[in-house]
Each structure stands twice: as structure tokens, then as C-alpha cells.
Design a protein that fits this description.
By secondary structure, the chain is of the alpha+beta class. The chain has 16 helices and 13 strands. Helix 1 packs parallel to helix 13, helix 4 packs parallel to helix 9 and helix 13 packs antiparallel against helix 15. The N and C termini lie far apart (61 Å).
């Protein structure tokens, strides 16, 4: 009976994920190359206007002779400073005064700005984003102001426990690709940068043909098209962005490293692998592997190391998504006097099982259910839908993944999982990092 109920629940969830999650959208291009995606949902009087730019931490500023890290993240802040028609510091005030909210975020691969308003403020949202793209004020006052803001953000981030982990992963996994540098950049690069370099960076990357505009929510499609043209037709097309990043050589022998953090008392062990970028089928399979290993308290590593053997305070396997290379990393904190090597041996034992045995049918179905649930939740509101539409178009090259991505996960078999574990997760393909408390001598 229990098996029958489990199968029925899985079937019901599959039907729900297929029918309830379909997202309708409309696409068109302006003459300047701006791609526009509209999603009409009149169930609530809310609208989101968002722009995703194809620029991220991997795109250095400066010159080839003196590259500057952290420019994309810096611009995430700088482009709120003001424009020729919006006073310094007034961008956020205008949004808040009109019942809206706003934010932005930057990854190694893209920068995303969004404004959420009552739907009767749609025109205001479009005007604000066109102002940001058309003629922002990039001057020394704004650069100096945001330089201090970014420095404080970095201090807060790095002074939190285990705050340097992402930088540590990048530095040790990548030798030539710009993923080796932290997304937030190095402060000495920003300090040394000139105003001319910042203006050049804006000209190079923040053009309509290097972006996608999403308008989602309580809109009328025809009216919205007219407003988009009204506010964005004036923006001039920029030069095409050309990237020629160096390729990494495969890791063929286990590499070992140590990193130190003055803000921790408990050491950690990291095992990190360089794996295919997020647009590949293998990346989806590795998502499932990470969830199988540590996705919740019923996962194999949590049950083994935290619950049963009481060897770890925490354990996690993550597949960090990036366009050119993902980072698959396993992380554990020891409990008591348990050694870091012991934790790594116990983790490897579970990975070896995946490489030599198929996971059970029940565990496989559980994974499918988890990813169907994530799929539904990710696009349950217009904020998630807007970001997904932007991401799938700009980074994956297939906007309809918003409706069909779940089919990729459903198509992954137990044999696929075993093959990917064999192909990517052997000890000779990784960097092992001891993440240690920093002492006065170091």
C-alpha cells in the first residue's frame, strides 16, 4: 500500500508540474538589438520591469595590460547613482515613493536589475530602466561613493565565518579563466581604476544589444509594446561583445591547498571539481547528484555523517552554476576531534557507491519529485518568472526552458547518474582544500 501511495503522489505531482507551470510569453526585438520578453498575468495588480545585462564578474575592466576585477559588481551599485534626469541618490527614492521596490544582483556571468510596482506604474518602471541604459551619470563623485560602499560590503562578507570560501574555490580551481577572480573583485583594482575606464566599461557592455528586457505581470501586451518602443528606441546599439577566455587544462592529479580564515574556530574540508557549465545536460545530472548527497536531512551524507556516525557538524555538496565551468564542491565541518581526512574518506565512500552501484528506484523518484517541486516554486510568482525568462534567453539561449527544463530532469536515469559520478567525481580530478583557522603566525 505504501508503495502505491508513493507512486500515486509522484504521478499527481508530475501532472501538477506539467499543467500548472506553463508560462506564456511573447518576444520581439527593437532595431537597436534589445530583446524584449512580455509575460501577461492579470491575476494581481503588480508589474515587474527588469533588465539582465550579459556582463558579470568574469568581464574585467581596464585594459589588457592592466585588467581590473570587480567592475560588473561595481556597476551594479554605480548605476543607481543617478542619470541626466534623475538626481544623485534619487533612483531608489522615486521607486519607494511610488509604492515599488527595487534591487539588483551580479554573478560571474550576468547583472540583473529589477523594479516591482503597482501595475499602474508600468510606464514609470520602463522610464527608469531606460534612463539607466540611456544616459547614467558616471562621474568621480559617484565612483568614490560606491567605492566605499563596495569596500564595506566586502568587509562584511569576508569577516563573516567561512566568508572567503567562494574566493578560495575560484582561486584554486581556475588558473587562467577569469573565474579565478572573486566576483566582487580586488579593492586595489577598483582603487587604481580611472573614470575613463569606468565610462569605457559602460560603453562596452551596457548596450541594448547586450541585454534583455522583461516586463511581466498585470499588463496589456499591445500597450506595453508601445511603451517599450517609446522609452527604449532612442538607445543606441553598441559594439558586439567578443569574449575569448583561455581554456583550463583538465585536473588529472589530486591537488592540495590550504586556506586560512581569522573568523573561524572550526576547520573545514573542501573537495572541489571543475565541471561542465550550466547549459549542459551533465550539469543537470550533477545537480541531482548534489541533491542526492546532501539535499536535506534525509540525504545520504547528512544521515551518515551528522545523524548516524556523529562525525560532522555540517556537510554539503553543491553544484555552483556558471556559464563556462560549474564548480562541484563538497564541504564538511568536523565534530569534536574528527580529522578532516576522515571526513573526506567517508564522503568518498558514498561517491564510490554511486560510481559502482545504481541508486535505488525510490531515491531516484525522490530526486525527480524534489526537482519538480523546485521547478514549480521557482516560477510561482512574477519575480521568479521574470528572472527565469531573462536567464534562459540570455545565458541558456532557449527561453522556452521555462516550460520544458523539468523534462531534462525527468529524463535523467539512474544510469546517467552513475556515469556522471564516474566521469567527473574521481579524486584525481579535484582540489582538496583544508580551510583552517588563521593564527597570529600566518
Amino acid at each position: 500500500m505504501k508503495k502505491g501511495l508513493f507512486t500515486l503522489a509522484a504521478f499527481v505531482l508530475a501532472i501538477f508540474a506539467t499543467s500548472a507551470q506553463e508560462v506564456k510569453f511573447e518576444e520581439f526585438d527593437l532595431d537597436n538589438g534589445l530583446h524584449v520578453i512580455l509575460h501577461q498575468d492579470n491575476t494581481a495588480p503588480v508589474v515587474i520591469t527588469s533588465v539582465m545585462y550579459n556582463v558579470g564578474g568574469k568581464d574585467a575592466g581596464g585594459t589588457a595590460e592592466a585588467p581590473r576585477t570587480g567592475f560588473a559588481h561595481f556597476f551594479e551599485h554605480l548605476l543607481f547613482e543617478g542619470t541626466e534626469n534623475i538626481g544623485r541618490g534619487e533612483f531608489a527614492n522615486i521607486v519607494l515613493a511610488n509604492g515599488g521596490r527595487l534591487n539588483a544582483n551580479t554573478s560571474q556571468d550576468r547583472t540583473y536589475y529589477y523594479d516591482i510596482f503597482p501595475s499602474n506604474k508600468l510606464e514609470l518602471g520602463l522610464w527608469l530602466e531606460s534612463e539607466r541604459m540611456l544616459h547614467p551619470v558616471i562621474d568621480q563623485v559617484g565612483v568614490d561613493t560606491q567605492n566605499e560602499v563596495v569596500k564595506e560590503e566586502k568587509r562584511q562578507r569576508y569577516e563573516s565565518p567561512y566568508g572567503k570560501i567562494f574566493e578560495t574555490l575560484g582561486k584554486n580551481l581556475f588558473k587562467v579563466h577569469p573565474y579565478k577572480n572573486p566576483n566582487i573583485g580586488f579593492m586595489e583594482d577598483l582603487d587604481a581604476s580611472t573614470l575613463e575606464e569606468f565610462n569605457t566599461y559602460f560603453k562596452d557592455y551596457y548596450s541594448p544589444n547586450n541585454a534583455v528586457l522583461i516586463v511581466a505581470g498585470d499588463i496589456d501586451s499591445g500597450e506595453t509594446k508601445d511603451l517599450v518602443k517609446k522609452y527604449f528606441n532612442e538607445v543606441k546599439r553598441g559594439s558586439e561583445v567578443v569574449r575569448n577566455f583561455s581554456k583550463e587544462q583538465p585536473i588529472t592529479v589530486t591537488e592540495k591547498a590550504k586556506a586560512y580564515d581569522k573568523n573561524i574556530q572550526i576547520p573545514a574540508i573542501l573537495a572541489a571539481y571543475r565541471t561542465p557549465g550550466f547549459g549542459t545536460r551533465d550539469a543537470y545530472i550533477l545537480d541531482m547528484i548534489s541533491s542526492y548527497l546532501s539535499g536535506g536531512k534525509s540525504s545520504v551524507l547528512y544521515k551518515k555523517l551528522v545523524d548516524n556516525q556523529k562525525q560532522a557538524l555540517a556537510v554539503q555538496a553543491v553544484n555552483i552554476p556558471q556559464m563556462d565551468y560549474n564548480i562541484f564542491a563538497m564541504f564538511a565541518l568536523p565534530l569534536g576531534e574528527v580529522g578532516l581526512e576522515t571526513l573526506l574518506t567517508e564522503i568518498d565512500e558514498e561517491v564510490t557507491k554511486m560510481q559502482t552501484e545504481l541508486i535505488t528506484e525510490r531515491d531516484h523518484q525522490k530526486l525527480i519529485n524534489q526537482f519538480e517541486n523546485q521547478f514549480v516554486n521557482a516560477n510561482s510568482g512574477i519575480e521568479g518568472i521574470a528572472e527565469s525568462l531573462a536567464k534562459y534567453y540570455l545565458l541558456y539561449g532557449d527561453v522556452n526552458l521555462i516550460n520544458k527544463e523539468i523534462e531534462i530532469y525527468r529524463s535523467i536515469t539512474r544510469e546517467d547518474i552513475q556515469a556522471a559520478a564516474k566521469k567527473y567525481l574521481s579524486p584525481n580530478q579535484r582540489v582538496e582544500i583544508e580551510y583552517l583557522p588563521q593564527t597570529d603566525e600566518q
